[in-house]
């Protein structure tokens, strides 16, 4: 069995093998460059942070805006609720007044009907009395 060995790549063109001294100097130069870039980024971020509000300040402002919006919506709801309750109260008062008028009207009609019934009954009794009197008088005289 043949051992699988990865093929050896030829060196990349343009790459030059540096001496240890030059390699260390280049490494030192790259480290300084990275350090300067990191310090510059840090300086820039500090400058922008002074001008821009911090994350916490953004959160506080956002929370305040949300609270103000919630309060505004709550006040609008309270107004709508108050109007709805007032409308409900007015409607109930109107219904109660209409119910009372209806009851009064029904009572008046009932009283008039009873009055009419009593009048008719009295009239009927009067007729009956007259009829009896007419019957009694000829019977006595005859």
From TrEMBL:
Residues 41-53, 93-136 have a biased composition (Basic and acidic residues). Residues 27-68, 93-142 are annotated as: Disordered. It comes from the Eukaryota. Residues 27-38 have a biased composition (Basic residues). Residues 54-66 have a biased composition (Acidic residues). This is U2 small nuclear ribonucleoprotein auxiliary factor 35 kDa subunit-related protein 2-like.
């Amino acid at each position: 069995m043949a051992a699988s060995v990865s093929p050896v790549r030829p060196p990349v063109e343009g790459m030059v093998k540096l001496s240890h001294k030059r390699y260390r100097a280049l490494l030192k130069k790259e480290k300084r460059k990275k350090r300067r870039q990191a310090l510059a980024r840090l300086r820039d971020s500090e400058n922008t942070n002074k001008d821009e509000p911090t994350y916490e300040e953004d959160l506080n402002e956002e929370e305040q805006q949300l609270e103000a919006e919630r309060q505004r919506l709550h006040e609008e709801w309270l107004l709508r609720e108050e109007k709805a309750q007032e409308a409900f109260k007015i409607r109930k008062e109107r219904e109660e007044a209409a119910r009372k008028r209806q009851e009064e009207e029904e009572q008046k009609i009932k009283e008039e009907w009873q009055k009419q019934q009593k009048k008719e009954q009295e009239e009927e009794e009067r007729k009956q009395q007259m009829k009896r009197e007419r019957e009694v008088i000829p019977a006595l005289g005859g």
